[in-house]
Amino acid sequence: xxxxxxxxxxxxxxxxxxxxxxxxxxxxxxxxxxxxxxxxxxxxxxxxxxxxxxxxxxxxxxxxxxxxxxxxxxxxxxxxxxxxxxxxxxxxxxxxxxxxxxxxxxxxxxxxxxxxxxxxxxxxxxxxxxxxxxxxxxxxxxxxxxxxxxxxxxxxxxxxxxxxxxxxxxxxxxxxxxxxxxxxxxxxxxxxxxxxxxxxxxxxxxxxxxxxxxxxxxxxxxxxxxxxxxxxxxxxxxxxxxxxxxxxxxxxxxxxxxxxxxxxxxxxxxxxxxxxxxxxxxxxxxxxxxxxxxxxxxxxxxxxxxxxxxxxxxxxxxxxxxxxxxxxxxxxxxxxxxxxxxxxxxxxxxxxxxxxxxxxxxxxxxxxxxxxxxxxxxxxxxxxxxxxxxxxxxxxxxxxxxxxxxxxxxxxxxxxxxxxxxxxxxxxxxxxxxxxxxxxxxxxxxxxxxxxxxxxxxxxxxxxxxxxxxxxxxxxxxxxxxxxxxxxxxxxxxxxxxxxxxxxxxxxxxxxxxxxxxxxxxxxxxxxxxxxxxxxxxxxxxxxxxxxxxxxxxxxxxxxxxxxxxxxxxxxxxxxxxxxxxxxxxxxxxxxxxxxxxxxxxxxxxxxxxxxxxxxxxxxxxxxxxxxxxxxxxxxxxxxxxxxxxxxxxxxxxxxxxxxxxxxxxxxxxxxxxxxxxxxxxxxxxxxxxxxxxxxxxxxxxxxxxxxxxxxxxxxxxxxxxxxxxxxxxxxxxxxxxxxxxxxxxxxxxxxxxxxxxxxxxxxxx
Length: 766
Ligand code: BGC
Known about the structure:
alpha/beta, 28 strands, 30% helix, disordered N terminus
């Protein structure tokens, strides 16, 4: 039977077509009697109050997103104003303030309001509260979602111990352009990896019981498509197809909601001409009707007000109306809803109904997290001392940091270094720099609490005098005499460790870069040191994949250290001295050059992709750069040698409702224990729409003792082969597939298998 007839018969056999679990439309369950009773008693002003989020003016807060508070007044007056607003029922939640004792006072004021509706307390806790874990991009390099879950659990314990029970995390935007600074906040370029981490973070933040005092309500963000900003420029427009949206950018959100997330944040960005914040199709049709999402949507900071600047709303009243009707519940901004809605809802039934729905959704979530039963949940002033930065949490930070480090290069087995007998020159602006250890969104980290690379190496050395430290340059600028001083230190050493890379402010929000390189001052430093000919190891701090060149690219060894957080220096020392073998893998492709962006491993084959990796005329390429990355997605070395057998399929073909096992033997042929990350990729060889050259479908960390070999096996069924059809529906087609179990997205030789058509259809067709 020809492929064409197979497709036709499948289409005529709709009952057998695969429908992913998230496809059926769901309707929200009715609110509880308590919520309905409250709603009935609420005035318009009180309902709008539930949709109003203020920056906390009363508790210490590192982040002020000011609402319509008169900032010319003194802080004490502003705080008094805010308390009065809370007492009047005009505020639903506070943002960014911490402190359990003060939180109790605030909640007490809320309980003095007419309807006694407790406040919800939110904050941006992405990768730790005071115990800082690696930035999410770094943690993604662990390829260990269970580890991310454990870090999120600890973050939730710490933040709830200071009176915050709602986090604006995880960031689940897939990021395929490394110029975008917010790559740092997510799990990289791949939809499957990001989805696995998204679900893990939600499980970790929320724990097994959402109403427990140490549970933090999670907010997968930014819904949706923000990761595709044009040119990697923050806040820029997004132009992606519906298929791309559904296949690449939406699944991590769905995974997070399936894991129990009850809130989401609308993106700043527009998509196909409609800003996410006024996007009815996104916020209502997809989120609520298709997926049955039962929680609430909060705007990003000022994103509802910005509908005017986007040019889709005539004025702020129009912006408020559009946002509310689209399905935006809470306004995090400058008080748009409270200013504009009261007059409009009085005469607009649809708007009044939307206000009721939004208030109901907020109250339902407040009920789900236990605030009505215990308004003082997460407000126990005794917990902070016990639960913040305790030894267990710090030990997890060290483990997480170790597993996030990626070894890109290790010529001549330079690493690991011995702990004695070798003089080490540690050179670079990031060698002993407390300001750039924690990474973006570590708002509550305290200066000086995290361990620098210098401190980590020194503590691990048998004779600390073997370590000499020289800064050499600032991150962006030269230091007078700095290079000379660094060269003197290098000359006196047996081996040089260069600590280079980005400042933490170079990634995160408002941190897009056109040139994703190590700043020039540091490149000059590296060049000067390399000229001395000493063995040279580069340790990179970065919030994105960088385009490495010159002396840095040519160093003998390269370790990617991201921003590792509280225990970064110690974790790096563990790796540098070989207490543990590196095991991280790149969650983003490292490009050859900045101009190669966007580059992501799961691109299309095109009619002319140079399959063999050989550059040839008239192929998909730039004339001046090879069409492959410098280091591919999934890549990372260990201190041992790991050999993969050929990939095997348990059978050449499998039936529609059956499954297939794909396996390979993986052997540690070296003399060190390692953890290897086996990755399974597929390619659909002919489908009704073009498919990526490879797609990650499974991965597993495997511990291998020296000389040990194991069979790693993954089971796939047709759900793993689904894609979005020409008619924009998730479907599965019978087809032939390539499959790899490999150590990176570019490695290995494929096996093949065939998914057969449903039998009924095949029989009917023949
Ligand atoms: C960011 C969000 C963040 C919010 C609140 C915005 O500028 O885009 O990710 O949650 O601020 O701090």
